[in-house]
Amino acid sequence: KKKGIEQVTVDDVYTGNGVSELITLTMQGLLNCGDEILVPSPDYPLWTASVTLSGGTAVHYMCDEEADWYPDINDIKSKITSRTKGIVIINPNNPTGTLYPREILEEIVELCRKHGLIIFADEIYDRLVFDGLEHISIASLAPDLLTITFNGLSKSHLIAGYRCGWMSLCGDKSFAKGYVEGINLLSSMRLCSNVPAQSVIEAALEMEEETEKLMVPGGRIYEQREYTYQALNEIPGISVVKPKAAFYMFPKIHTSKFNIYDDERFVLDFLKDKKILLTHGGGFHWEKPDHFRVVYLPELNQLKMACDKLADFMSCYIQK
């Protein structure tokens, strides 16, 4: 209700052992061989894995770094076919940390309306927003479309190992009775999500101000973002778009400077030399070997150490 999502009853809400379990459940209940799901590139890779393991095909649409990593609407249009069943929207985004504005979400809704697509809205970072910006839930813009919205406490309350997530179904379910039955069947086969984690959800959602304190000047995540953004951009040959949400950055490597042709090899070389692990862009289904993901959750002294070591490593690195 607080997000402006209508028509949700108790029967429309499912708890899971983290959102990851629910993502897999929704794909298994929907997809047959040859069915397609539109997934962003870069993506949270579990989406692609769950589509593939469920017998479907993940078709990646591009997000545009030059436009603050927003989805490329024309690219989405070009990839919708008669086999497309739905589209995944990760907002706020992992791995880029971007936050989608209303106009982008409205364009996506119009495409889904035109082609009869289900919207899968991964919004687990919706409470981790910087700079006084507002997260808009895409379901609030599409009351006539079947939208499945995913959320949880792992990120906003920093309890990833506790495994408490949920999803809600809203919009027009009249054409999807068989799908809903399938979700119910798969949910029942799992018996239930873990009970201790369920017990903390209500209390946690009544304490959102604790999360908000992290995201404003002086707050831990805010200050870590500010430092990491500046430190990365000061390294010759690396640039990064400033994130507006979550706790990730997706820096770009100017590959010609370092002769980088294999991004996985780059992060392994850095790991072996400096004992610090990054994730290469290819791990998020980004096709070019020119990006990596940074998680800026470690405390400031650790981030400073890591950025200093990265700067030192890049000062003499040439991929052979």
Note down, in words, how this protein is organized:
There is one protein chain. By secondary structure, the chain is of the alpha/beta class. The protein folds into two domains: about 10-205, Type I PLP-dependent aspartate aminotransferase-like (Major domain) (Aspartate Aminotransferase, domain 2, 3-Layer(aba) Sandwich); about 215-315, Alpha-Beta Complex (Aspartate Aminotransferase, domain 1). About 35% of the residues lie in helices and about 20% in strands. It is built from eleven helices and 13 strands. The protein has helices spanning about 20-30, 45-55, 75-80, 100-115, 175-190, 195-205, 210-215, 220-235, 255-260, 265-275, 300-315; strands at about 15, 35-40, 55-65, 70, 85-90, 120, 145-150, 165-170, 240, 250, 250-255, 280, 290-295. Strands 1-8-7-6-5-2-3-4 form an eight-stranded mixed sheet. Strands 10-13-12 form a three-stranded antiparallel sheet. Helix 1 (about 20-30) packs parallel to helix 2 (about 45-55). It is globular and about 60 Å long. The model has no long low-confidence stretch (mean pLDDT about 95).
Quick synopsis:
By secondary structure, the protein is α/β, with parallel strands linked by helices.
Layout of secondary structure:
Layout: E1 13-16, H1 19-30, E2 36-41, H2 45-53, E3 57-64, E4 70-71, H3 73-79, E5 84-90, H4 102-115, E6 118-122, E7 147-152, E8 165-170, H5 177-189, H6 195-205, H7 208-214, H8 220-233, E9 238-239, E10 248-249, E11 252-253, H9 255-258, H10 263-274, E12 279-280, E13 292-295, H11 300-314
Parallel strand pairs: 2-3, 2-5, 5-6, 6-7
Antiparallel strand pairs: 1-8, 3-4, 7-8, 9-11, 10-13, 12-13
